[in-house]
Design the sequence.
């Protein structure tokens, strides 16, 4: 296995790892308002997120940007909660393509901006893997491609489940959006409340 393939596998495993499900929750929150028929819009949305995390992943991994990882680990669930809360205000359009684009237009800049924060989280993991390795282009590229492939699989699963629930089981689309988004908010709040850095800031830790 080449170095590129090894880091591609590591990137894929990192974003699909159920033990570190915060990034999975974010992708789910991004896709909650869509089904399989909206796949083109979702590709654009995920691409915006990818651009964001690719920028900070490269900058932080090469040492050009340095941010306290404790803040990043706290901010990531915050980005998930904000994205999921926006879903509650989503208006399911009638049949007009233009109305749907207008209603969901804010999701793209949010995905790009929040991607910047998630990229810093990815970089913390990648820096540990790299250690003192001098050549980082192939590892960085492979890891990023692995992340992207993992994201696309998560997107496909979420959209497929949404299609089954809405089209086959005839669940109202807004009910599905609200239930899934509510679960995501609850799980993200749990991440924040169990975050040691947050507990120290809030004076909740018991010595």
Sequence:
């Amino acid at each position: 296995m080449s170095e590129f393939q090894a880091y591609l596998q590591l990137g894929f495993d990192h974003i699909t790892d159920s033990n570190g499900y915060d990034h999975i929750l974010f992708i789910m929150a991004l896709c909650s308002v869509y089904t399989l028929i909206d796949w083109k819009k979702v590709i654009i949305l995920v691409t915006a997120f990818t651009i964001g995390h690719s920028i900070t992943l490269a900058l932080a991994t090469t040492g050009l940007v340095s941010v306290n990882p404790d803040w990043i680990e706290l901010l990531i669930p915050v980005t998930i909660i904000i994205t999921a809360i926006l879903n509650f205000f989503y208006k399911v359009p009638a049949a007009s393509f233009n109305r749907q684009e207008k209603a969901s237009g804010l999701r793209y800049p949010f995905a790009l901006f929040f991607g910047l924060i998630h990229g810093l989280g990815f970089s913390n993991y990648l820096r540990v893997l790299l250690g003192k390795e001098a050549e980082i282009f192939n590892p960085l590229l492979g890891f990023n491609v692995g992340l992207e492939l993992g994201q696309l699989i998560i997107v496909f699963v979420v959209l497929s489940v949404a299609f089954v629930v809405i089209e086959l089981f005839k669940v109202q689309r807004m009910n599905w959006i609200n239930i899934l988004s509510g679960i995501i908010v609850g799980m993200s709040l749990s991440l924040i409340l169990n975050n040691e850095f947050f507990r120290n800031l809030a004076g909740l830790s018991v010595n």
In short: Residues 137-168 form the longest helix (32 residues). Confidence is low (pLDDT under 50) at residues 96-103.
